[in-house]
Amino acid sequence: MKKIFLYGFFKPILLSISIIVMLLPFKLFCQNGIFADSTFYSNFTDSLKIDSTALDRILPLNALIDSAYVNSALLKSQDKQILIRELYKKSINHEWLKYINIFATTNYGVYDNLVSVQDQSFVGSTINTGNSFRWSVGITLSGAPIYDLFNKPNYNKIRTLEAEKDIDFKEDMKLRLKEMIINQYYQTKLSYDMMIVASKNVYSNFTQLVMSEDKFTDGELEIYSLANVREMYYKSMFTFLKNESDFHANYLILESICGIKF
After folding, report:
1. Long-range contact set of residues 39-48: C-beta below 8 Å, sequence gap at least 24
2. Residue 241 exposed, middle or buried by CB count within 10 Å (0-12, 13-18, 19+)
3. Percentage with pLDDT > 90 across the chain
4. Residue 123 Cα distances to 115, 126, 228, angstroms
């Protein structure tokens, strides 16, 4: 019981001594005027520098959409797919030609000709030998499937529908790309505005921190109040850095989607 009583008696005293020891370096730190130091303030303002022309460099929304249509790798790939369909359709339309064969032969050599002669006074035959050139040309139709010939209109209709399907898919891709650009465009503008607001909040909290530091040095402000102000400042700084990072990310994503550099 005696030990417990002594511990309960000295506990507030020990706690007070611990707080004084912990706060003494912070007191000396504030007395050095670190918040009012010109180097610190210069570094602080440099960290909040914002490119005021960033949004001005972004093209109008319609120009961004047109640029994305031209530079999109997916749309280019779909254009090639449509062209392949058209060439394939033309190739199939001429498929019947593969069943037609053209042949030609030429011969040159020595040939014997048997000539028969018959009249009232003479009956006989003679053999004539000579060089001659012979040739022949012809066309044949073979192997043509009757089913394919009669079903050709259906084949043509199927190929036409496939080509139209590719075109519709391309239009759907353009619509999705347009929606993506619109969302990214306004998300970029929003993140920029949020960064501006966050920077103003940092300046406000920084000013309040400097004033609170002076009051604490003069003994007009408790250490706990100064700690709260300091915490508010760091939170506002974190919010600004987060918004700044979001803006730069959205800015680069918009450039990537549109395929241009702002």
Report:
1. 44/206, 48/199, 48/202, 48/203, 48/240
2. middle
3. 41
4. 11, 11, 142
Check pLDDT > 90 for residue 125: no
Question: What confidence tens digit (pLDDT) does each residue in 32-75 have?
Answer: 444 444 455 555 666 677 888 888 999 999 999 999 999 999 99
* Homologous superfamily assigned to 23-98+153-258: Outer membrane efflux proteins (OEP) (1.20.1600.10)
**What residues pair up with 100 in beta bridges, in sequence order?**
141
**Pure H helices in the chain:** 2-31, 38-47, 54-57, 61-71, 73-93, 146-217, 223-258
Amino acid in position 215 = K
Q: Are 262 and 199 in contact (CB under 8 A)?
A: no
Q: What CA–CA distance (Å, rounded) separates 228 from 207? A: 14
